[in-house]
Design goal:
Order of helices and strands: HEHEHEHEHHHHHEHEHHHHHEEHHEEEEE
Distance between the termini: 59 Å
Strand order of the largest sheet: 1-6-5-2-3-4
Mean pLDDT: 88
Number of helices: 17
Shape: globular
Largest sheet: 6 strands, mixed
CATH class of the largest domain: Alpha Beta
Number of domains: 3
Strand content: 5-15%
Radius of gyration: 23 Å
Structural class: alpha/beta
CATH topology of the largest domain: Rossmann fold
Number of strands: 13
CATH superfamily of the largest domain: HUPs
């Protein structure tokens, strides 16, 4: 494959490349010398499951993998103890090692729904960062100034608002940058919120006598609400480990305009041809792509049939997610804890709008108490089987 064709494939869904000319040169050298490039993307295991927002980078890693390059899936189990300050208006709550270890194990398991296991180098940055001594920290710190750190938008805002910024948070971009030095990264992938950290990698590589990595930035994927960044805490996510019917239903709920963005950054489908389809059909195709990728084609077709039954024939899904209760509990609490609503306010709004039913009986009382099991429905396509134990 020509370098120009490789570039075209790599650029799809990318927001910024620093620099494109540098990337072209690396690809030409790689092709001429028949030496694969080292491609790195890091993920701090701050949550137990991977969702579509994470897969934007994973998809880009897979692209490089398919082009014959060496892919490093870096699990930031050491840096997760600090917490990435990018885009934060306050310090992250520190995670304990056991929680990080547990999350890292699920990441390692789920990532191969997208990447090829035999072609993927899974690395944990604790394997080298935990061995760094104070002398090395002093050496690395000498390459960066406080002025540089405070020029960063999030740190600058917190400094001006007289909010705390710990020295530990200053170390985060430095340690992420050292990951690139250690792995001798040719290319690092990251979201647009990671630009400062990615550039720090280039700076540190130069200071350590290496050629600076090429940076490829991908967009932050909006969640199913079409407004906020996809996040489990906001309830606007599509998890890759979810049941096929859930993935299908959630995909069908995204705004039409956002659908094409999902197609661009998460699939290889021809966008122009897709835009010629009726939005409903295009969205069904998108849902099936996700389910085939994370489950299989048979389950994708079954999920589509089930969706059609729910949407047009008003039937209840056959593979409902269960929610167990061992005592009486408020309806609002169940809606929030099961992620059928993102907050208590949304739960109350859904109830007041008549969008919540239990066993097909509309519930309008925001203080309603669930005493027994039943089929809970919120909105048009979100179902939950409540089981009393």
């Amino acid at each position: 494959m020509s370098v120009e064709e490789q570039l075209r494939i790599i650029k799809r869904g990318s927001v910024e490349i620093i620099s494109e000319e540098d990337l072209r040169s690396r690809l030409e050298d790689s092709q001429r010398k028949r030496m694969p490039l080292n491609i790195k993307a890091g993920f701090d295991p701050t949550a137990p499951d991977i969702h579509l927002g994470h897969t934007v980078l994973l998809k880009k890693l897979r692209t490089f993998q398919d082009l014959g390059h060496t892919v490093f899936f870096l699990i930031g189990d050491f840096t997760a103890q600090i917490g990435d300050p990018s885009g934060r208006d306050q310090a992250r709550i520190k995670m304990n090692k056991e929680e990080i270890k547990k999350n890292a194990a699920t990441y390692k398991k789920q990532v191969f729904k997208i990447l090829e296991e035999r072609k993927t180098k899974v690395v944990f940055n604790s394997s080298w960062l935990s061995k760094i001594d104070l002398q090395k920290i002093l050496e690395l710190s000498s390459f960066v100034t406080v002025a540089q750190m405070l020029a960063r938008a999030d740190f600058k805002q917190r400094f001006e608002e007289q909010k705390e910024i710990s020295i530990l948070e200053f170390l985060y971009p430095l340690l992420q940058a050292y990951d690139s030095v250690y792995l001798k990264a040719d290319v690092e992938l990251g979201g647009t919120d990671q630009k400062f950290n990615l550039l720090m990698g280039r700076q540190l590589q130069i200071a350590c006598g290496q050629k600076p990595q090429t940076i490829i930035m991908t967009p932050l994927l909006e969640g199913t609400d079409g407004v906020n960044k996809m996040s489990k805490s906001l309830g606007n996510y599509i998890g890759i480990n979810e049941q096929p019917s859930q993935i299908f239903g959630k995909t069908m709920s995204i705004p039409d305009a956002l659908m094409y963005r999902y197609f661009e950054v998460l699939t290889d489908v021809d966008l122009e041809q897709t835009k010629k389809l009726p939005p409903m059909q295009a969205k069904k195709n998108l849902a099936k792509i996700f389910i085939e990728r994370f489950h299989d084609r048979g389950q994708a077709l079954k999920a589509e049939e089930e969706f059609n039954n729910i949407f047009s024939k008003r039937k209840t899904p056959s593979d409902l997610e269960s929610y167990q209760i061992d005592k009486e509990i408020s309806l609002c609490e169940v809606l929030v804890k099961s992620s059928l609503a993102t907050s208590g306010n949304e739960a109350r709004r859904l109830i007041k709008q008549g969008a919540v039913t239990i066993d097909e009986k509309k519930i309008l009382d925001v203080n309603y108490i669930i005493k027994e099991g039943g089929i809970l429905k919120a909105g048009k396509r979100r179902f939950l089987k409540i089981v009393r134990t």
